[in-house]
Structure formats: structure tokens, C-alpha cells
């Protein structure tokens, strides 16, 4: 999603750059104001983490892969303003140090991935969190939905910018970008929820927007005695789900209606109607957002949109439930399947007294990864020590 | 932690005239070149040739391997391909065209493709040259002297230090993962990738926290002390004036 040099023209670069500059200035002021002793390293670590995690490609359908964005994760972990600063740092380092994303497109990239995905995603998260039931399920549903949204919306904004610059016509790029990123967004939602669940389980003090009940047990990470998260109240949950569906429908509907229209118009203009029957992004089950066998195009479009929303809702509810429920289990140190709550000071002793890294082994014991043989060896010294 | 920290430390290769330039003039000069190149109209083909010529001259002077730049340019390829795929769609408002088989490729579409390819290549080459001839601490010091906000450079320098830990940890996990035949090919395996990512975060955070507290207890007050303060020399002045003259001349005549 990193736009290189030359893909956005001067007006677009200047406009997005101005908005980004304003947002980052404000963010620096806001984040700098409450900068505690430990906040600087937390910001640095989050930046390094987002930087490293963006190198981690996860698979999408049909052989393509997307990378983790991390904007919503950063916003929930360290707050929206600090997240804007961190994402900007990451993007600037990628542009200067790795030539990933152009210098002249830095404003646009910051706008897409720090402002839209970070601030916008956090806004979506807060709205959803307020609307959804105050349970762990509701919390993780809000996390999952907003991180999904952050990816899809910033992909849509990328195609808007490319279209405004006259690089790629909107009619084709919007559908292609958003449909691919709707799938990438699922990976983003899963990873964001997993990471948050793990951090909440072992170091809840690091999360700036914790779920409602975690606030009362700040920093303990002990067994969850909370009434939340066991069984969400059905009525409240359904209400919340409907609101999510509406919010999604509002966002999905424009793509659903505009994409085929735009394509058909271009097709008619250029006289390649035949070719347009087989658009290249035809791997989505609801291609062109219409259903076969329904004559009325509008009805078909909205039905297809509805189906898509229901499917997404299902995924988000599943994610929310899974993490909402798994949390009390994870929080107990003796039976933890995922992460061991590690206290930093304890941890130091192990390393310096030359023990084998018992804590490390526990940490790697997450399902699917297993204990790492390398951790049984002495760790080589790193530059940061 | 031997070797393979290729992702940010290519600066350590070699020593040359370009390496020894002040980071400030390199940042200003190479970013300036990119900006000027992006602002050049697409049909001034020779202007892009001269930008690239200047960059190749500097590259030769710095004795960096060309492969390095080519690898970075390859990163931009997906974006360029994305534009190329849409070639036939462009240029409804005339502008010549060519027939390849049954597909009509519009001239305006080709111009857009040339535009993004040339500008992206110049941008990538300039930034690779900057990053490969300037060490990261130098780069941060240069940015700081160019009045980048303090919090920003502070986070950048912390990020730089921690990213080694992250990459090293990540590499270990990946090796363990591959040893167990997990490849992470499907979407539903994203959950496992998520577990990896979260233990990566927690481990590295706790370690970073200890390191920071150790630094604070030894008197760290938020400023990095450079071993030698930055000072502009005659070579720096020559570099920046020479580059500015060439850029101005090319841009005005383009």
C-alpha cells in the first residue's frame, strides 16, 4: 500500500501532505504532553514492532499476499495520537531507509496509513466499543471490525488518490484495491485481535484502551473474576451486531454500486464490452456485487451487499467470541496455552544467572509455534544491550 | 547476531567521497533531487535521463554495487504493473495509440506508465543512495540538525535499536516454525501468525524496557551524544552547489 514517487501528482501530494503535516504536528504535541518515563521506549518499541511486522506477509487468496498494517493495533495499544507519530516514524524510515514508499508521496502515505487508518480506525474502534455490549466479546468484535475497516478504507483512499492524480482510473482501481484489501483486512483483524489478547493477558498495563473490566484490575493480569465475557447478553449483542452491519453496509454499498457502473461506462466508451465481461478481479464470490438469477440490478446489488455484510459479520463475531472467551483461560499462568505473564524483573535474573530460558520457552509455547530449540542456547549479545 | 542485518545497515559498506559527505547536505540534496524529478513534466525524457545520470555518477563515486539499487527498484514493480495492467483504459481524450493484437494501447496510457516508472526509479535510487552511504545514527543526527521534532528523532533512534532485536527474534521464531513444517499459507493460519507476532511483541517489549531503564539509570537524558559534531566542509559545499546548479539547469530547460 506504500505509494512510490511519481504516482501522485503535485496537487494531491500537497493536499494530503498538508493534512498529514497538520495531523502529525497535533499528534506530536498531544503525544509529547503526556510523555512519561516509560512512554518513550514504548513508542520506540511499538514503532520497531510495526516496522518488523510490516515485513511479515500473510497469505491472501489466489497466491497474493498482504502485509500487516498495524495502525489500529498501535492506536489501541498506545493511544491514537502516539499511534499517528509511530506510524509516521515507520513510514518515514521506510521511505528514507528502504526506499519503500516515495519521499514526495510521504504525505499521501502518512495520510493513508497514519491518519485514515490510525485516527480513523481508532474512531471506528471507539464508536463500536461504545455501541457494542461491554463484554470481552464486544471489545474484540470492535477491535476486529475497526482493524478490518482501517485496511479497507485506506486502500480505498489510495485508489482515490491515484485516480485524483490521473494515474489509475477510479472505476477500475477502486474495485480492485478494495476487494483485495477486504481479504487482507481479515488477516489484519485476526492478528490485531490475537496480539491484543496476548498483551491484555500478560501486560494489561501496556494497553491504553483496555476493555471495560480490565481497567479495574490494572497491571495484575490475575485470574479473571469478571462477570463479562462469559456469555454476552443476547439482546445487547444482537443490537450491537445490527449496528456493525449498518456501519459496514454504509461503507460497502458505495463500492457495490459504483464499481460495475464505472467499469461498464469505460467499457462502453472504449468499445471493449466483450473483454469487460471477464474482469480480472473475478475471484470474489460476489463478483460485481450482484447475484445471478435476479433481474432487478439494484435489488441484486443490495442483496449481494447484504450477503457480504452477513458473511463479514459472521467472521467478526467469531473472532470476537473466540478472543472474548479465550481470555480468562489465557490469563491463568499455570494453564496458559499462549503466553506466560512475565514480569520484567524476574525475567532479567534468568538471563544473567545463565539458566536456560524457561520463560522464553513458555512464551514460544503458543499453539502452532512450539518451543524454539534456539532458546535453549545462550543468546548472542545484541547491539541494544 | 552476526551478519544479515541487511535491512537498515547497508551504510556500513565501504567508504568513499559520498560516504564522507555531511548527512545534512546528502539529505537535502537527494530529497531535493527527488522532488525536482517528480515535478518535471513526463514528456521531458532527457531530463529524467540526466537525473538518473547524476545518480549513477554519485553511485559510481560511492562504489556501491548496482545490484543494491536494482533490488530496491524491484520493490516498486507491483505498483508499476498495476498501472500497466490498466494501460488500455487510459486516454479517452485522444493522444495516439498502438494496436497489440486485439488490445488497443493508448498513447496517454503509455505516457502515464513512463511517468510513474521514471519518477519512481529516480526516487528509489536517490533514497537507496542516501541510506547506503549514511549510517543510521548519522542520518538521525542530520535530521535533528535540520529541525526535525525531537520526539520524532527520539522514537526513530529507539526504533532503530529495537528493530534489531525484533528481526533477530522473528528470525528465530520463523526458523522454529519452518522446522515444524508450518508455512503459513492460508488465511485461517493468520491466527498462528498472530500468536507469533504477539510473543514477538511481548518479548521484545520487556527486553526493550529493561534496556531503557538501564540507560536511564546510567544518566540517559534523551539526547544521543555524537562522537564528532557535524561540521560542513568544503566538499559538502561543492556537492550541494554543484547538485543544485545541475538540477536547476535541467528543470528550467525541461
Task: Write the topology of this structure.
The complex is a heterodimer of chains A (385) and B (254).
Chain A: H1 10-33, H2 39-53, E1 57-59, E2 65-67, H3 71-78, H4 80-97, H5 106-131, H6 136-164, H7 170-202, H8 234-270, H9 273-276, H10 297-331, H11 344-352, H12 358-364
Antiparallel strand pairs in A: 1-2
Helix pairs in contact in A: 1-4, 1-5, 2-4, 3-4, 3-5, 3-6, 3-7, 4-5, 5-6, 6-7, 6-8, 6-10, 7-8, 7-10, 8-10
Chain B: H1 17-20, H2 23-39, H3 45-62, H4 66-85, E1 97-100, E2 103-106, H5 107-133, H6 136-145, H7 150-179, H8 190-217, H9 234-253
Antiparallel strand pairs in B: 1-2
Fold and architecture overview:
- The complex is a heterodimer of chains A (385) and B (254).
- In chain A, 64% of the residues lie in helices and 2% in strands.
- Chain A has twelve helices and two strands.
- Chain A has a two-stranded antiparallel sheet with strand order 1-2.
- Residues 214-235, 250-296 and 326-385 of chain A have low confidence and may be disordered.
- With 254 residues, chain B is mainly alpha-helical.
- In chain B, 69% of the residues lie in helices and 3% in strands.
- Chain B contains nine helices and two strands, in the order H-H-H-H-E-E-H-H-H-H-H.
- Chain B has helices at 17-20, 23-39, 45-62, 66-85, 107-133, 136-145, 150-179, 190-217, 234-253; strands at 97-100, 103-106.
- In chain B, strands 1-2 form a two-stranded antiparallel ribbon.
- In chain B, strand 1 (97-100) and strand 2 (103-106) form a beta hairpin.
- The interface between A and B is large, with 101 and 98 residues.
Amino acid at each position: 500500500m506504500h505509494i512510490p514517487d511519481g504516482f501522485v501528482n503535485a496537487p494531491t501530494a500537497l493536499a494530503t501532505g498538508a493534512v498529514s503535516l497538520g495531523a502529525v504536528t497535533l499528534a506530536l504535541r498531544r503525544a509529547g504532553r503526556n510523555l512519561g518515563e516509560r512512554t518513550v521506549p514504548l513508542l520506540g518499541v511499538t514503532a520497531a514492532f510495526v516496522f518488523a511486522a510490516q515485513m511479515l506477509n500473510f497469505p491472501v487468496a489466489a497466491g497474493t499476499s498482504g502485509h500487516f498494517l498495524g495502525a489500529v493495533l498501535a492506536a489501541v495499544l498506545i493511544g491514537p495520537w502516539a499511534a499517528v507519530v509511530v506510524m509516521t516514524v515507520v513510514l518515514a524510515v521506510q521511505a528514507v531507509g528502504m526506499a519503500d514508499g516515495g519521499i514526495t508521496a510521504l504525505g499521501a502515505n502518512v495520510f493513508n496509513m497514519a491518519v485514515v487508518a490510525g485516527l480513523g480506525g481508532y474512531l471506528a474502534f471507539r464508536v463500536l466499543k461504545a455501541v457494542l455490549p461491554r463484554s470481552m466479546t464486544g471489545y474484540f468484535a470492535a477491535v476486529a471490525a475497526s482493524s478490518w475497516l482501517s485496511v479497507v478504507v485506506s486502500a480505498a483512499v489510495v485508489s482515490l488518490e491515484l485516480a485524483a492524480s490521473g494515474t489509475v482510473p477510479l472505476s477500475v482501481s477502486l474495485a480492485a484495491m478494495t476487494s483485495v484489501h477486504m481479504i487482507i483486512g481479515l488477516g489484519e483483524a485476526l492478528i490485531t485481535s490475537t496480539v491484543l489478547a496476548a498483551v491484555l493477558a500478560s501486560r494489561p498495563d501496556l494497553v491504553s484502551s483496555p476493555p471495560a473490566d480490565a481497567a479495574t484490575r490494572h497491571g495484575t493480569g490475575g485470574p479473571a473474576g469478571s462477570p463479562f465475557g462469559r456469555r454476552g447478553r443476547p439482546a445487547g449483542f444482537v443490537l450491537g451486531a445490527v449496528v456493525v452491519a449498518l456501519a459496514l453496509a454504509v461503507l460497502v454499498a458505495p463500492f457495490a454500486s459504483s464499481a460495475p457502473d464505472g467499469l461498464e461506462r469505460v467499457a462502453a466508451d472504449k468499445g471493449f464490452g466483450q473483454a469487460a465481461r471477464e474482469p480480472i478481479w473475478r475471484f470474489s464470490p460476489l463478483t460485481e456485487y450482484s447475484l445471478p438469477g435476479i433481474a432487478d440490478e439494484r435489488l441484486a446489488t443490495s442483496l449481494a451487499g447484504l450477503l457480504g455484510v452477513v458473511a463479514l459479520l459472521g467472521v467478526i463475531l467469531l473472532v470476537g467470541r473466540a478472543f472474548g472467551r479465550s481470555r480468562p483461560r489465557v490469563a491463568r499462568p499455570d494453564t496458559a496455552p499462549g503466553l506466560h505473564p512475565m514480569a520484567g524483573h524476574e525475567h532479567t535474573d534468568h538471563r544473567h544467572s545463565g539458566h536456560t530460558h524457561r520463560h522464553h520457552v513458555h512464551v514460544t509455547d503458543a499453539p502452532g509455534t512450539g518451543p524454539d530449540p534456539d532458546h535453549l542456547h545462550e543468546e548472542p549479545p545484541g547491539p541494544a544491550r | 547476531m552476526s551478519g544479515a542485518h541487511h535491512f537498515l545497515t547497508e551504510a556500513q559498506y565501504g567508504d568513499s567521497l559520498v560516504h564522507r559527505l555531511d548527512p545534512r547536505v546528502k539529505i537535502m540534496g537527494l530529497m531535493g533531487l527527488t522532488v525536482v524529478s517528480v515535478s518535471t513534466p513526463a514528456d521531458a525524457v532527457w531530463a529524467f535521463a540526466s537525473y538518473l545520470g547524476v545518480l549513477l555518477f554519485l553511485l559510481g563515486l560511492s562504489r556501491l554495487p548496482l545490484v543494491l539499487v536494482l533490488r530496491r527498484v524491484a520493490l516498486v514493480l507491483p505498483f508499476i504493473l498495476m498501472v500497466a495492467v490498466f494501460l488500455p483504459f487510459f486516454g479517452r481524450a485522444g493522444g495516439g495509440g498502438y494496436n497489440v493484437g486485439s488490445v488497443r494501447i493508448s498513447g496517454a496510457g503509455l505516457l502515464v506508465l513512463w511517468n510513474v516508472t521514471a519518477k519512481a526509479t529516480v526516487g528509489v535510487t536517490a533514497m537507496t543512495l542516501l541510506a547506503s552511504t549514511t549510517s543510521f545514527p548519522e542520518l538521525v543526527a542530520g535530521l535533528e540538525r535540520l529541525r526535525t521534532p525531537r520526539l520524532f528523532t527520539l522514537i526513530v533512534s529507539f526504533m532503530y535499536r529495537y528493530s534489531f532485536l525484533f528481526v533477530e527474534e522473528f528470525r528465530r521464531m520463523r526458523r522454529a516454525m519452518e522446522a515444524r513444517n508450518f508455512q503459513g499459507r492460508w488465511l485461517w493460519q493468520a491466527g498462528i501468525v498472530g500468536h507469533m507476532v504477539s510473543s514477538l511483541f511481548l518479548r521484545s517489549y520487556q527486553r526493550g524496557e529493561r534496556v531503557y531503564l538501564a540507560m536511564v539509570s546510567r544518566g540517559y537524558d534523551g539526547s544521543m551524544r555524537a562522537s564528532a559534531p557535524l561540521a560542513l566542509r568544503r566538499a559538502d559545499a561543492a556537492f550541494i552547489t554543484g547538485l543544485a546548479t545541475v538540477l536547476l539547469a535541467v528543470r528550467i530547460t525541461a
